[in-house]
Amino acid sequence: MKAGVIAVQGDVSEHADAVRRAAASHGVDAEVVEIRDAGVVPDCDVLLMPGGESTTISRLLHDEGIAEEIVAHVAADKPLLATCAGLIVAARDAKDDRVATLGLLDVSVDRNAFGRQADSFEAPLDVTGLDEPFPAVFIRAPVIDAVGDDVAVLASWDGDPVAVQQGSVIATSFHPELTPDSRIHDLAFFGQDHAASPADADTDAGADA
Ligand code: GLN
After folding, report:
1. Ligand 1 atom 5: the closest Cα is on which residue?
2. 14 catalytic, yes or no?
3. What is the Cα–Cα distance from 141 to 174, expressed in whole angstroms?
4. Model confidence, pTM
5. In the list 57, 182, 195, 200, which could disulfide-bond 21, CB 3.0-4.6 Å?
6. Homologous superfamily assigned to 2-208
7. Positive or negative: CA dihedral 63, 68, 71, 73
8. Which positions make up the binding site for L-glutamine?
9. Is 84 an annotated catalytic residue?
């Protein structure tokens, strides 16, 4: 499995480790590539769009010609996990002209909504498809304040959605890569119909996640 981590800016190496752990638990070898230029995304089976600064990430994605490749990846029904700033970039509307969103998810987000209250916190989160709560780390996290009909809310915090799924895209307000727990990466890449490894019979178990 070839996993691409968007690496124009933001936290990259933790995501690479989390993908490798999730893949290894399925007996799959993940080759992880860091994406800073156009031309790499089309070869990737799964993609990750990490946290960082959404204004910078979205600008660089468009400048480098990577933005349209990510849109094509999702249009081909291939898995994408977008976290924190990645969620903001993937959204339909970030209500901020400085962010050129990709419209991969029919959600609108409020940047830094959690950040005004506390820069960072960790909370045990019930997530659809996971048996035990997930230790979710929020860092200046966005709140999802509106979701379209095709979007499934996988987890909420304080009444607001913080993990959502639409087709092959899963996005979180929090940072699943910052704990040793790789279940969100597992869910995004192996736990749905769009699983990276269709040959793996186990994937049926979580197909409706
Ligand atoms: N607040 C940042 C933004 O708006 C996102 C924070 C993060 O990714 N940890 O881009």
Report:
1. 85
2. no
3. 6
4. 0.90
5. 182
6. Class I glutamine amidotransferase (GATase) domain (3.40.50.880)
7. negative
8. 52-54, 111, 139-140
9. yes
